[in-house]
Amino acid sequence: MVYGKKTTTISAANSQQDKEYVFPKGPEDTVSALRWSPVSNHLAAASWDGKVYIYDATNTTSSDTIKGVAAIPVGSPVLDCDFNKDGTIAVGASADKKLHLMDLNSSQTMTLEAHTSPVRTVRFVNVPSANAPIIASGSWDRTVRYWDMRQPQPIGALELPERVYAMDTGGSVLAIGTAENHLHLVNLHDNPLKLWKSIASPIPHQTTAVSVTPDGTRWAIGTIAGRAAAQVVDEKDLSLANLSFKCHREAVPNKRNATDSYAVNDVAWSPGHKDVFATAGSDGTFSIWDVLNRNRLRSFPKVSSPVTAVSFTRDGMGMAYAMGYDWAKGYQHHKAGAETKIVMHRFATALK
């Protein structure tokens, strides 16, 4: 299915209502992940330049009012990032096989010797049985490991059949996308060390991104083939029929019925509306989708570089997106001086 029957195009340049603000110059290489603090307007950006950048976008009225407040020095490409639930600690997942953390109040940093292969993704997770904040890290070593920051060794590990490519959490659910097109679900409130469900992806192409609704009732994935999918966690929940659809595709000039497919680099559910999620593509576009009515809610003008990451603000009234070369076409297509930047798009009205 291709969405698009009810499409509203919003251009920051032409809109009299929506606004865009460019973040201060920071990352010197492609941004791999964006995450907003759950309690404030602070944004974490993980970059291939070997740092996690922290920005303060509180009371943003212009690009000049967004401030860079900290950077976690990692030294190796950082592939993902997250905040703890009170927004005081940021963590980065690195290609150096480690987790790198910073206490944003004291600026103190620490490192966890996490995995035997690069750490692809990281999340603070809700484990009621633990008496401390718990970090889950997913790696190409085919494990998800759980960490109590007070201990140098993992407090538990989950063995997986394949490499971890993407991971997200919401409510009691941890969703893990792996190689060989599978999605594994963990019930964090029951047994974090056991797979609850393993599902064959509805799309027979490599998973690139996973997102879970804040209440843990739905998940969505993006793939390398310009397709995304969304499903409910509980099969008894009839609020959303399982669906997959085409996105981030372009008609090939002068070739009838021919299209180019671009990787979906990121997906993200809106925190304010569980029928709404965004996709970001290697084609330099991002879109917002209404899964209940099965249409594209909003699309945005194509930008000069691939959109590598997207994240809704905690109130759902805005989103940050990152632009940069994603290496989808190889080194021969990389242009020196290619634009790398982070932008916040603020909606004039709530998405619905």
TrEMBL record:
SMART domains documented for this protein: WD40
Protein name: Anaphase-promoting complex subunit 4 WD40 domain-containing protein
Keyword line: Repeat, WD repeat
PANTHER family: MRNA EXPORT FACTOR AND BUB3
Domain of life: Eukaryota
WD repeats: 24-65, 112-157, 257-299
Species of the source: Chaetomium globosum (strain ATCC 6205 / CBS 148.51 / DSM 1962 / NBRC 6347 / NRRL 1970)
Record-linked Pfam families: WD40
Matching PROSITE patterns: WD_REPEATS_2, WD_REPEATS_REGION
